[in-house]
Every structure is written in C-alpha cells, then in structure tokens.
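Quick bug: RCK N-terminal domain-containing protein output formatted oddly.
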Amino acid sequence: MPRDWSGRLLIAAATLSFLFGVLGFHTAGVSDPWEVAYLSFQLFFMNFVTNIGGVELQMNPFLQAARFGALITAVWAILKAFFPTVRQNIRRWLRLRGKACAVILGYGPVGQAIGAALWRQDGGIRRVTAVHPAVTPELTARARMDGVLLIEGDPSDPRVFDRVYAGKAERIYVSDTDDLRAIDTAVAVRRHLPSPERDIRVVLNDSAVAAQIAEATVAGFLGAPNLRWFSIADEVARLMIADARFDRFALESGAERMHLAIVGCGSQGEAIAVEALLTAWRVGLGPPKITFLDRAPSAIEARMRSRIPAWFTQPEGGALYPAARPDFEFLPCYAETLDFAHDPRIDGLRARVSGWVFATGDDALNLRASLALHRAIAACHIDPAPIYIRTPTGHVEDAPDLSANPLGFAHTFGSIDSVIARSPLIDEDPDAFPRTLHSEYLKAEHEMFGRQSEDWRSLPETKREANRALFRHAVMKIEDFGAVAVIGADGVPRTHPRLAATLRAVDENLAYDRIDQESDIQAWLKDRTSLVEVDKDTALLIRDAAICEHNRWTTERALAQFLPTARPDRRMRNDVRRLHNNMHDWFELGDAETRRYDVVMLRALLSQRIEATHLLLKKARVRTVFLAVNSEAGTCVAHVAGNGTLRGDVSELRLHLNARTAPNEPADLVSVVMRCLAPHIDRQRHLPPARIRFDFTKQPNERILALANLVADELRRKLPDTTLIEGFWNWRAAGSPVVGVVGHRDLSAFGGNTPVTERLRQVFMDLVIEKGVDQLVTGYALGADQAAVEAWATLGLPNPVLLFPFAGYGDDGKRVLFTENPSAATAQTTIEEEDIKKITDRSMLTICDGHIGQAGELLRRTNVVVFVIDRGGAARAGGTLDTLRRAGEIQREIILIEPRP
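Here's what came back:
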C-alpha cells in the first residue's frame, strides 16, 4: 500500500462489525436498543452471548459476520499495538512467497528515493524490503509512506540477507554514504548469492569511482563481477545537462562555443563538466569551454590533469589536436563573498556564457550565490544566461522549484528523489535505450561496410560506456542535420523517415578520402557521379556532422585516458598503453572508411521507424511572431517575421511579446494574446510546434513577464505535453545596438507609404531577432521618417528617439517643431510639441542644428542605419544621399531599402 491505510482499514472493519452486530441482534429478537449496543460491543472481547434472559437467540448471517469480524478486528488491533515483530515477520513471509520483490541495502537518502520510485513507477517491482543499521521513527514513517518493509541490521551481514530473502529478490540495490562500504556490501552480496546473474545495482557518490570501477573489477581490482555501477553525481549531471541544453543556448545566442561556468567543483561539479563536454559538440560551435570557480582551483586543475591528461597540453606532446581540445579555466573564489558585479576576476564571464551551475554542496550557499548573480544580471553587469542551482538534499518526493513561473532563467536541479525517479537506475533494463540504438548501429554498419561489430552483451564495459555517451548525444546529431527530434515511448529519438533516404543516396556517392575543407563538393564525389544542388547541401551537412562526431568521440576517448599516437598510423596503436591512432584531426585521417565511421550513428538515427501516432516534420522550420500589446486599448496585433505565412507546419514558434506601457492587470490580456496566437497553434490546421520560445531581447519589466508567464500557462493547457515551452533571455549587459532610419520624403517610386512601412517593419523585426535592437532614432518628416515611426509602433517596441532640425513658437505661443526650414514651413512640416509627446517622451526629443546637424546626431547615436533611398535624386548637404556617404565613411552598418523593379 502506498500509504499506511492499515489504521483506517482497522477502524472501518470495527465499525462494520459493530453495525452487523446491531442488525444481527435486532433481527434475532432483542428489542432493547441499549442491550443491542452492549451485546455488539461485547463481541470485540470474544464473548459472544447466545442466551438472553433464558431465551436462546437464533443465529442469522448478520450475527455470523459480526462475531467473525469482531474476532479478526480484535486480533488485528492486538498485533498492531503490541507485536510489531510479528507484523514484520508476516510481511517478510509475504515477500518470500510473492514475486517482483526488491531489496535495498542501505536506507539512507538514496535508498529512500529508490524505494519511493520503485513503488510509484512501473519498473517490474511491487514489493520492497530495506535494511538499515539504525532505524529511527523518521525512517519508519518514510518507509511506511512508501510501502517499504524496513528492517534493522547490518546491510553487509550475510545473516541479514537470509532474513530479507535476498536470494529470492529480482533486484538488489546497494547504497551507502561511504563508497568503500557500499563496495564492501556489494562484494558480500555477490559472494552470498548462489546465482551469478542476479541483478545487483550499486549506487556510489563519487563520479570518478563509478566511471572506473567496472573496468578495474574485470582486471581483478576491487569489487565483484556482474555488478551495475551507478553514480548519483553522474545521474544528476546527465539529467541536468539534458534539461538545460547549454549547447542549444550557445548556438541560438550566437556564441562561438558552449561556455559553462561551474561554481564549486567537487565530485558533482566534475561530473557536470564531463557530461557537458561529452554532449556540447555541435556543428557551428568550437570546442567547449569550462570555467571552474572554487576555493582551491589548483587542486581541481591537478585532479582534472590527472584524470584526463589528453585534454591539456603536454610537455612531451600527446595532447589532443586544437579542434577537439576543450578549454579549461580555473579561477579562485569563495562563492559566499564573490562580487559578480565588480570582481575583475570574472570579467571573462560577463558576456556570452552559456550557463551558470552552482554546485558547492551547500544548499544555502548555492542559493545565496545564485541570487547575487541574478542581481548582477538584473543590474546589467553580466549578460543573462541560464542559472542552475544544485539542491542535493532537496525535499521528500520533489525538488524545490523556487519559482512559480514557467518562464525564468533560474532552475533547481539534483534533488535525490526526482533524480532517482527519472534515472534508469530503477528501470527493469537500465540499458534498454543504448541497447536499442546499438542494435540499430550494427544494422547501419552492416549496410555501409558489409560487416558487423560485437553485439551489446559481448561488449566490454569500457565500450558500453563509450556507446552510452554516444547515444546521449543522439538528439544533437539529429538537430545538426537540420531535422526535428521526437522522443518515442522507448526513449529513442526519431525524425522524418524521408531524411534517411536522402542521407543514404548522398552518402553512397561520396568518396570520403577526397573530402577536404573547401566547398567544391563536386570534387568529393566518386568517379562518374554527380549531385543536384539540394543534395550538395546534404553533403555539406554530412561532412560537418562527421567532423563534429569525430571531435566528440576524440574527447570521449580522452576521458577514458587514451592519448593520441604521434601520427594516425594503425601500427602505432596500443590499447594496453591507451594510445589511439585515430585521435587526430578528421582531415588527417586519410582512410575513407575511418572517416565514414563517423556517419554510422547519424544514419542509424535517421533510419528509425516512427510510431503510428507520430506526425513529423521533414525539416526544422522556425516561425517568429511579434505580439504587440496595447495595454490601454486592450488589443494585440501579431506580425510574422521574414514575410512568413500562416500556412504550413512549424517545428518551433518564437514569440516576442512587446508592450510600450506595462499592463495594469496582465491577466486581462491573456485571452487577447491567445486570439493572436490561435492561427499558429491550431491543431486542426497543422501540427503543434515541438517548441515554443519566448524571446526576451531586452530585460522585461515585472508585468510584461507576468503576462508572458500567464500566456505560457495557457499554452501548456492547449498544447500536448511533448511541446517544450521556455524562455530565451538574450539581451546584452553592454547595451543593444540602436537603429536609425533616413529616407526620402517622396515615396512614390516605392509605391507609397504602405509598402515602405511593411518593408521597414520586416527590417526592424530582423534586427531585433539577430542583434537585439531595442531603440529607434529617426526624424519625423513626411515619407520614410513617419513610415519608420509607424512600423516601429506596430511592433510594440519602446518609444523612438525623434530628431528635429528646427524648433520655434507658433502664433499662440506654444512651442512647435519643424521638419523643414521654418521660412518654408507648411502645415505638414509643422508639428506641435504636445502632439509629439503622444509619440515619444520629452527626454527622447532632440532639436538639432539644421539638417546637417540632424544627420550628424543620428549617425552619432546609431550602430545600424536603414536608408530608404532612390539613387536617382540629387545629393544635398544633410540629405539622404549625403548621409549615406557619411555613414560609409564612419563604418556604420548600412541597410538599403530601394524601389523594387
């Protein structure tokens, strides 16, 4: 039972027995209600009276049920209250006779989490017995809540194994706060149990120990054969990296590589670094970088150099080639006192960091330090990036989320209960996912080379671990091929089946020993073959994916302490001394077959059969929608970037939620925003997107963020659970670029104001997406200037900065602004200052010294200048053509909007 229902069942049984007694005595002829109640109570003391006042009562079914029910209830109550050992022995006996049993040796925090997860999930286990040296009331309460039979004893004592019927258990878990004791217990279990095939799983704390002990055991070191070793630090790292996707943030934010900052580097920090390095290899990114911030950075560096020597430059050579060598930085700091805003030691972390991880092992310290970082980000001292806060102790059942909002860049991870519940540790077959992909790998290998490697059961543990690392990178491989990964019920990522045929056709035509760094794809092909233009793009993807996989594989081999040979010569390979001839740059591997092996996994992934319920996109397709909210009018207008249309499926929907004024009641605008989004999430018209991303290219205020979170909640209710909804925080602490607009007054050559307004709107959306532009500087003259102000306003972006060449006063004494020389002013070139305040703030209104001064001020304030220009006109000082010339001289980025033919 998942909860201690025995007390409630006891009360229910006693009440039912009493009611049967009342009904039975009344039916038998006892008329006095007080006598009936007394006789019914008397049943519970095993004194059943059949003679009342010399009258023999007639037995009836109600009395029979009452007296036997009272007997059972009384015995039950006595055993429960006074004989807990008898109860425990009965439960042990039931586990002996039953099936689907598991034994947990060590009921500490990990053991408790295993017991809870086994009960809640369908992992083939229905009964759980746990052994712990000292049973406390708190442990007893936890065990009772999770349906675990808890027995006090030494988990490594063979006599205890007999007492808990370990020989009958389908699965045995060993966990201890001390790794050496856990190994001792596991060895004792293996010696005691007669069957060498018994499923024994050992949970260790240290990541490095768990990674190496399986190989050491086979070689005769510590441990026992046929054990499965797990590490809590490794499980935490794998789940966190899979959730965080720092590689994707690096790609989407325009970084050169994935750069992870880890505050606190014990066993947990080291496991996170290793997992990140094994999964951060993406096409378009350079070798990943890890920055460690710790009180003892020299000790961390020495430990990392000892464990993974090939990742560092060696005096005698032997280090990895530059394209596969991660970059490490070790900074001294104490998280309690680190000043994220001003400390010069972290100046290299202020821009383009892909994520922050706080893993000091102290929950309170992690929280304080992460809050200090958040304050520095909010104060624009550091670029925003995802923050992950380790909570190792966590809480019963679930990790604290620390946030009620679905959108945010701070997350907690590592609560033992939630990690164990999601870990393969409790699965019936922990290697089901890698075993399945290994089988598909063998099929692809046989198809490509005509031979087949060892199956999963015959692989040594070192190769199994290498394959597990390879398969954890599966989703990234599919994404690098420009496809969309959908995770099936078995955990295997799948994509559109037509991509496999495309890959197969191109792959068969490539001569891999001819592929070079140049882009002349025709030179890569086998003799007398050719490719159409579309397939040439596929050939580029194949080459880049192969290089990326080779770099990742090289890093993984370095983690296993392999070193590269002096040159890529097969004769120099030595597996005993761990020297590998293929740990060289992909282009230095002259053998075509060796190069082609880096494509096998991609081919296996693309060849996966999809499930009947899956409708997949052939290629990844992104649609960006700007949602301009008018808080005062209660309206929302949607604009699709890139001249996108509402037709067709998209794999990802990126939303920019903008409002010039913060809404007073964000909840009132949710329905308005959802109506704008309806055409994009209508499941009857097209497939739901696999991901919805809320883009924050500038720091949102409190109410806009609240509105975005409310919309995200509503989207979760309307879309499938498989749709990922998250925020993308991508503003720049140093400030965003500013765009200026200069153009002609007469737009007849462009078709009028409306076409120019639409083209400017698309330019503005592109600049916001690509550069994070959040400020416009322009004039307010007829034509291009006013079209720019209108296009900017329709996107809900902040008020523009307006520049006027002249100012003066009207006949009524009110201040007026002129877009032309006041001597030739007309009603259209004269604007009252009060009217301008409806468009922009007073502080954003600037009066310049004529048109030349206006052009100079615009160029001084902007980084990007958009020119709406018809080159047929004459150049005049301060005019559009003259400003274009000056912009080129001072190297401003220039965007031209010219009349279309």
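Actually, after a second look the formatting is fine. Residues 739-897 form a domain with the Rossmann fold fold (CATH 3.40.50.450). Closing.
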